[in-house]
Specification:
Shape: globular
Helix content: 25-40%
Structural class: alpha+beta
Length: about 500
C-alpha cells in the first residue's frame, strides 16, 4: 500500500434446500420486512481484528463476487451498482452481516427471493426467510448505489481523478464501494463489469472477458483467475489508453494511462517487464495472470498495490524532483506486493509488516543492485530511527491502532523500513542462502492464501533448521530494537533537537 515520498483449497459445500414455494415467497418476504423490527435488533458485527474490530463478518466464507457498476459520466454522481455474493456458511446463521457504507441499498435478494435487510453502523444485515445451517450455499444480490464523493471522516474507496475514477480500498474502505466481507482473511474470485458512456475506458483486476459496445455506452467485463482480498479491488474509469506488452514467459502486461499524457509516461512503463524478471530472479514466478500499472491523474499521497493493476499517481513520473532510481524502486515496491500481500495476504491487519516490510526490502535491494544505493546504509539509518518508530507506532508485528478518522495511519515507518529491518536482522542471523530459500518458500507455500506472523516464524525456523522464536520475538514485538547481528556498532540515534527560537 500506501507507499509515501502483499493455495486456496476448494471446499465442498452442501446446498441449502429451499423449501418455501416461490408463489408465497414474495408475501412471506414482505411480512418479514415489516416484522424485522419486532425481532432482535440488527447489530454490526466483526471478526475481532485487533486494529479493525468491526471489520469483516463471522459465520461465512465468500467464494465469489460479481460486481456491476454503471458510470453516469460524472465522477461526482453515484454509480448504479449490483453486487452478487456467493458464499457458504461456516456456522448456523439466521442473519448475514455484510460490510457496507456510503451507498443506498435499493433491494436485496437471497437465493433469488426478496429478503429483509437493515443497515446498522457500517453493516448491511440481511435476513433470509429460513435460518441457514452450517455448510449452506447462499447467493446474496444487492442493488445499490456506489457514491464516489468522499465519505465524511473516512479515507479511501473511490478516488476521483481528473478524468474519472479509480479505487483505493486499503485498509478498510472496499465497503465504501460495494457490500462484502471486507477483511483480507476472506479472499474470493471476482468478476467486475463496468458500463460507461462511449469515450471512456474501463479496466479492472484480472483479464478482460467481454466488451459490449452500443451506440451510447460500452460495457467491459473482467475476471480474476486467482482469489483476491476486497481491499485489493481496482476499477479505473477514464479517458484512458491501454498499452499492452509482453512480460516474462509471455505474461500479458497492460498499463492504463491518461491518453493526453501517453508520450510523457510510456517510457517508464517499458521498464515493467524487466522489473518482473528481476523479482522472479529473487522469489520465483510472478503469481498472477497479468500485471500492469495504472497511472492516475490524481494526488493521493501514496501508491497502491491493487492486484494485477497497481495504482500510481501520475505526478510520481512527471515531477523532476524524484530521481529515476527512486521512481523505479517505488515501481518495484508495488510489484513486490503482488507476491507479498496480494498472493500471500495477511491473516490480520497486525500482520501488515509482512506486506510492507517485504515490499520495502525488495525496493531497497533493487536500488542497491540497479543504482548503487547500499542496502546496509539504508538499514543502518533505519536502525538509528527504529526505537523512535516503535514508540510512535508500536513494534512491527503489533502496530498501534490507527488515529481516529484516519484508518490508513496504520501505515507508519515501523511497518515499512522498520519491518524491512527485521528481515535484514534475520538474514544476518541465518545467512543469505537460508534467507533466500525462506523467501521463495514463503510465497510458494502460501500462494493464493492467507498467512500470519506465526506462520512466517515457523517457516523461518523450519528452513534455518533451528527455533527462531527467541530471536524474532524481540524484533517483532519488543518496545526496543534488539542488537543487530554482525553490526555491534549500530546504535539508536536520538532525534535532532530543534534549534532554539531566536
Amino acid at each position: 500500500m500506501p507507499h509515501t515520498p502483499r493455495k486456496v483449497t476448494p471446499r465442498k459445500v452442501t446446498s441449502r434446500k429451499v423449501t418455501s414455494r416461490k408463489a408465497t415467497a414474495l408475501l412471506a418476504s414482505a411480512v418479514t420486512v415489516c416484522l424485522v423490527a419486532a425481532g432482535a435488533p440488527a447489530e454490526p458485527l466483526g471478526i475481532g481484528d485487533r486494529l479493525f474490530p468491526h471489520l469483516g463478518n463471522p459465520g461465512y466464507d465468500v467464494a465469489s463476487y460479481d460486481l456491476s457498476f454503471t458510470y453516469p459520466g460524472s465522477n461526482s454522481k453515484p454509480l448504479q451498482a449490483v453486487t452478487t455474493i456467493d458464499a457458504w456458511t461456516t456456522t448456523t446463521l439466521d442473519r448475514v452481516n455484510l460490510d457496507f457504507a456510503h451507498g443506498t441499498v435499493d433491494s436485496v435478494e437471497f437465493d433469488g427471493e426478496p429478503a429483509a435487510f437493515a443497515t446498522t453502523g457500517e453493516d448491511l444485515v440481511v435476513t433470509p426467510a429460513d435460518p441457514l445451517p452450517r455448510g449452506s450455499w447462499m447467493r446474496i444480490t444487492v442493488r445499490h448505489t456506489s457514491d464516489p464523493t468522499p465519505a465524511r471522516g473516512r479515507d479511501g474507496g473511490w478516488v476521483r481523478t481528473a478524468d474519472g475514477l479509480a479505487m483505493a480500498n486499503q485498509a478498510d474502505a472496499a465497503h465504501l464501494v460495494f457490500p462484502g466481507n471486507d477483511h483480507p482473511s476472506d479472499k474470493a474470485m471476482f468478476t467486475i463489469k463496468v458500463t460507461a458512456p462511449n469515450g471512456y475506458t474501463a479496466v479492472a483486476n484480472g483479464l478482460p472477458t467481454d466488451v459490449d459496445r452500443s451506440r451510447a455506452v460500452t460495457t467491459w467485463t473482467y475476471r480474476t483467475q486467482h482469489p483476491m482480498a476486497t481491499e485489493l479491488t481496482q476499477v479505473s474509469i477514464g479517458r484512458s489508453t491501454v498499452l499492452r506488452r509482453t512480460g516474462p514467459h509471455a505474461l500479458p502486461v497492460r498499463d492504463v494511462i491518461p491518453t493526453a499524457h501517453r508520450k510523457q509516461l510510456e517510457p517508464w512503463l517499458e521498464k515493467t517487464p524487466d522489473q518482473i524478471s528481476w523479482m522472479e530472479s529473487k522469489v520465483g514466478r510472478y503469481p498472477f495472470e497479468t500485471y500492469g500499472v495504472l497511472m492516475a491523474d490524481v494526488n493521493t499521497g501514496f501508491e497502491l498495490e491493487t492486484q494485477t493493476l497497481s495504482l500510481f499517481e501520475k505526478g510520481l513520473f512527471t515531477d523532476r524532483a524524484f530521481p529515476a532510481w527512486y521512481v523505479e524502486s517505488i515501481m518495484v515496491h508495488e510489484l513486490a506486493h503482488q507476491w507479498f500481500g496480494n498472493s500471500v495476504s495477511p491473516g490480520t491487519w497486525s500482520d501488515l509488516w509482512l506486506n510492507e516490510g517485504h515490499a520495502t526490502w525488495y525496493e531497497a535491494l533493487y536500488a542497491e543492485e540497479k543504482a548503487d544505493r547500499p542496502l546496509a546504509a539504508r538499514m543502518k539509518a533505519a536502525y538509528g530511527a527504529s526505537d523512535r518508530w516503535r514508540t510512535a507506532g508500536g513494534p512491527p508485528a503489533a502496530p498501534k491502532a490507527p488515529d481516529p478518522g484516519r484508518k490508513i495511519s496504520i501505515f507508519r515507518p515501523n511497518v515499512y523500513d522498520g519491518a524491512a529491518l527485521v528481515l535484514y536482522a534475520l538474514r544476518q542471523e541465518i545467512g543469505r542462502p537460508a534467507f533466500d530459500r525462506l523467501e521463495r518458500a514463503w510465497v510458494t507455500h502460501h500462494q493464493d492464501g492467507v498467512a500470519t506472523t506465526d506462520d512466517f516464524v515457523a517457516l523461518a525456523s523450519e528452513i534455518s533448521g533451528r527455533d527462531l522464536n527467541g530471536f524474532l520475538h524481540p524484533w517483532l514485538y519488543g518496545e526496543k530494537t534488539p542488537p543487530m547481528p554482525g553490526h555491534p556498532d549500530w546504535k539508536p540515534v536520538a532525534p535532532a533537537k530543534a534549534a532554539p527560537a531566536q
